[in-house]
C-alpha cells in the first residue's frame, strides 16, 4: 500500500521544498521507492536541489496537465543521489513543475483541471511501483492544496516560530481535521539555537493538539548551501540531518 504524504506550509519561505527533498532521500535510504511531485506550479523550486534547470527538464508536470504526455513521462530518476546504498529497491523519482515563464504565466492566466492531479498521482504510483509519494504543495490554501490534503495518508505541516505562521497553521489544521486527514504532524523549522526546544515543542503541541515530529535549528551551513545540494547528504552528522532522519522514520512507522 503506497503512503501519500503531503508536505505543506501556510506561508512561503518555511523551507518546505528543502525538507521534502531531504526526507525523500532519507526515506529512500531505508529501502523504499519514493516519488516526489512538485505541485507548486506557480513557484516551482524543488528541482534545483537535484541539479535540474530549464535546459535539462524536457518534460514537467505542466506537460501532463496540458495533455502533452502521461505523467510518468515527466518523472526523472534521481536515484544517483543515493550513493553507497546497496538495497536494490531504493529509488527516487522527481516530477518537477516547469520553470519556464510562459508555462507559469499560462497556469496563472488559465488555471488547469485540478482533477487531473489526482488521476496523475494514482497513475504515477502504479507506473513507478512507488512505496511513498511525497507531494510538495503550493503554500497557502487553494484548490490543488486541498486536493492534496484530502488524498493524503499523512499531512506534514512546516512552520517557523513566527506569529503569522502560527495563525496560518491553526487555520490549516482546522481545515485538515474537517477533511479527516488520517494523520497530521508538525515540523518546526528555522529555530534559533538559543531557544528552549523542549519548551517550544510542548507549547506548540498543546496549542494545536498535534504532535511535533521535530524541531530544526536555523543553521549557517544550510544558508551557505543555498539549495545547491541535499543537506543530509552533504552534512550527514549535523543535528539538522539527525532531526530529519528521526522525522523520516516517524513518517514510515
Pick out its properties.
253 residues, Rossmann fold, 8-stranded mixed β-sheet, 10 helices, 8 strands
Model description:
This protein is an alpha/beta fold and 253 residues long. The chain has one domain: P-loop containing nucleotide triphosphate hydrolases (Rossmann fold), CATH 3.40.50. Helix content is 41%, strand content 18%. It has ten helices and eight strands. Helix 1 crosses helix 10. It is globular and about 50 Å long. Keywords: ATP-binding, Nucleotide-binding. This is MinD/ParA family protein. Pfam families: ParA.
Series of H and E elements: EHEHEEHHEHEHEHEHHH
- The geometry reads as globular
Mean pLDDT: 90
Number of strands: 8
| Helical/strand content category | alpha/beta
Give the CATH superfamily.
Answer: P-loop containing nucleotide triphosphate hydrolases
Just give the CATH class: Alpha Beta
Give the second-level CATH assignment, the architecture. 3-Layer(aba) Sandwich
Radius of gyration: 17 Å
Helix content: 40-55%
Note poorly predicted spans.
Answer: none
CATH fold category name: Rossmann fold
- Quaternary organisation: single chain
Q: How many strands, which pairing sense, and closed or not: the largest β-sheet?
A: 8 strands, mixed
Distance, first to last CA: 13 Å
In DSSP terms (H or I, runs of 4 or more residues), the helix count works out at 10
Pfam family, one: ParA
InterPro entries: DNA_Partitioning_ATPase (IPR050678), P-loop_NTPase (IPR027417), YlxH/NBP35 (IPR033756)
Keywords: ATP-binding, Nucleotide-binding
Protein name: MinD/ParA family protein
Amino acid at each position: 500500500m503506497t503512503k501519500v504524504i503531503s508536505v505543506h506550509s501556510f506561508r512561503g519561505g518555511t523551507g518546505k521544498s528543502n525538507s521534502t527533498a531531504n526526507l525523500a532521500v532519507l526515506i529512500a535510504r531505508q529501502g523504499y521507492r519514493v516519488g516526489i511531485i512538485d505541485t507548486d506550479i506557480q513557484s516551482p523550486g524543488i528541482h534545483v536541489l537535484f541539479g535540474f534547470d530549464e535546459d535539462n527538464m524536457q518534460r514537467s508536470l505542466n506537460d501532463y496537465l496540458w495533455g502533452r504526455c502521461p505523467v510518468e513521462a515527466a518523472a526523472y530518476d534521481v536515484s544517483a543521489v543515493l550513493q553507497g546504498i546497496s538495497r536494490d529497491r531504493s529509488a527516487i523519482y522527481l516530477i518537477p513543475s516547469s520553470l519556464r515563464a510562459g508555462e507559469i504565466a499560462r497556469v496563472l492566466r488559465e488555471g488547469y483541471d485540478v482533477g487531473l492531479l489526482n488521476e496523475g498521482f494514482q497513475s504515477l504510483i502504479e507506473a513507478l511501483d512507488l512505496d511513498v509519494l511525497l507531494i510538495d504543495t503550493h503554500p497557502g490554501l487553494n484548490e490543488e492544496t486541498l486536493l492534496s490534503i484530502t488524498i493524503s495518508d499523512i499531512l506534514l505541516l512546516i512552520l517557523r516560530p513566527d506569529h503569522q505562521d502560527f495563525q496560518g497553521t491553526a487555520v490549516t489544521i482546522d481545515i485538515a481535521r474537517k477533511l479527516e486527514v488520517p494523520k497530521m504532524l508538525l515540523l518546526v523549522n528555522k529555530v534559533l539555537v538559543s531557544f528552549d526546544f523542549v519548551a517550544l515543542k510542548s507549547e506548540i503541541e498543546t496549542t494545536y493538539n498535534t504532535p511535533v515530529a521535530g524541531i530544526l535549528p536555523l543553521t549557517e551551513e544550510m544558508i551557505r548551501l543555498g539549495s545547491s545540494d541535499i543537506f543530509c547528504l552533504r552534512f550527514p552528522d549535523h543535528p539538522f540531518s539527525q532531526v530529519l532522519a528521526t522525522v523520516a522514520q516517524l513518517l514510515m512507522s
